[in-house]
Fold this sequence. Notes:
It is globular and about 75 Å long. By secondary structure, the protein is an alpha/beta fold. The strands form two sheets. A five-stranded parallel beta sheet has the order 2-1-3-4-5, sandwiched between helices. Helix content is about 55%, strand content about 15%.
Amino acid sequence: MRKILIVDDEFLVRIGVKALTNWESHGYQIVGEAASGREALEKIEKLKPDIVLTDLKMDEMDGFELIAASRKKYPKIKFIVLSVLDDAENVKRAMKLGAVDYIFKLKLNAAEFLEILNEQEYEEPADEREQFVRKNISDIKRLLVQLASEREYTDYDRLTRTFKKFGFQVNFEAPYCVLMIRYAHCGRREERPDGVQILEDAIENMIRNVFGEGLSIETFGYSERCLVSVINMESTEDYRETSEVARERYEDLWEYGSRYANVELEGALSPCFEGIRRFSEAVFCCEKAFLLAENQTPGALLVCRSETRREIPMIKEFIRDNLSKNFTVGDGARHCHMSESYFAHVFKEETGFSFMDYVNRQRMAKARELLKKTDMTVREIAQAVGVENPNYFSVVFVKLCGESPSEYRSRYRFDVRKDKNRSKKEGKAGTERGEQDIED
């Protein structure tokens, strides 16, 4: 594996590069990241990367100083500049200092990026086994996890040896739970033939980045638009804490998927199991949770339980049917014939959200749908989802969706316009139609 270090003072750029593709399937490994040249020098000494992707303008030590300092001590490292579009002179300067190539970071493209990386000459070629695993890693992982999930498959010893043979870290002998992530593209783009695989690679990278810290997790492609991750624990007693951490991080994953990959995610977490023989049961629990859930709350992870209180589906239906009304925790409690305090406790325990947080998430989900499909004003949409004050509506929308209602509508319609422009014929009439699509 060729080791890559990412150096950029913009967090979103670093996340974007890491989520661009499944690097390991192409023979590369993201071993670290740095926000300045000074931090990068420390990481280079420790991590010994083969490639450094670096911004040029940073505080403390910029990219020029980083390249100059590193070229003397680490002449074999390949420096590739992450450039902005109007930065031609700085790129030339960096190339003179020893950078081997550049790429525009505002137009990151996996195919172009890999082409640049693969053009470089590296000293030691990967051995045949590493090349085979690298080229087929996604298919190998998918096949193994599908076999493990089949109840009829019984050669578990051989399956366990195969997992270990290919160096996968999942340990079915220790306690584990399964995180299942389903996804759907929420734009109207026509995907390229390889678009589905690129999207799956991006989501797998996001799962690794969001869930990786402090958790032992490995992710596998499972079926069309579905991935499963196995989260190992030291003991079954750790499950409760693990499920709480998973709930919190899933919210971040859902937001990243919506904002940066333009996908809508659904997630479910199985109970705790031990032994590879019970893996199929863990997967089935997640699939059943999706089947029974109606209109999963955006950003809410389904945590599988042996039983669900009958009041919860009833109150969820009540919320969906009354989004335009101004109701409170007391209204929900009366609907379920419970005291207000007990109802609030039960609802949080079963869903992972407070009652009003859940209501607001349902309201914003409906608001996004109205922003995409209607020409209603923001004030009208706010009232339609039960929020009388449009300013408060905007505050809640920004908090849960990461952008204002007008920004969301403009971005969505801009994406739709771009899709239409790809297929329409040239001409003034077509151009006028494309411009009309983004008018509000």
